[in-house]
Design a protein that fits this description.
The protein is an all-alpha fold. It is 69% helix and 0% strand. The longest helix is centred in the middle third of the chain and has 57 residues. The radius of gyration is 42 Å and the shape is rod-shaped. The N and C termini lie far apart (140 Å). The model has no long low-confidence stretch (mean pLDDT 82). Keywords: Membrane, Transmembrane, Transmembrane helix.
Length: 83
């Protein structure tokens, strides 16, 4: 037959309950949002320099066109004054 043994301690006993606390994922969500903002900011900064280059090329092309037109007008005036 099996004997059962019970041990009692003098004084008060207490029970400790440990609950694991899990994060709701808020930190991860904020981290992803910050990463997206950094990527979008970098994209706009890189495109800004490309847009500046395109504007410079457009202005250069317009100035060359004005210069060519002025040269043609000058040539026409020179030929008109020679006649």
């Amino acid at each position: 037959m099996v004997e059962e043994r019970t041990t009692e301690t003098p004084g008060h006993t207490h029970t400790t309950v440990i609950e694991e606390r899990r994060s709701g994922g808020g930190g991860l969500l904020i981290g992803i949002a910050v990463l997206i903002l950094v990527i979008v900011g970098a994209y706009f900064l890189l495109n800004q320099s490309k847009n500046d280059d395109l504007q410079t090329q457009a202005i250069t092309g317009a100035a060359k066109s004005v210069s060519d037109t002025a040269d043609k007008a000058g040539d026409a005036i020179d030929q008109g004054s020679k006649e």
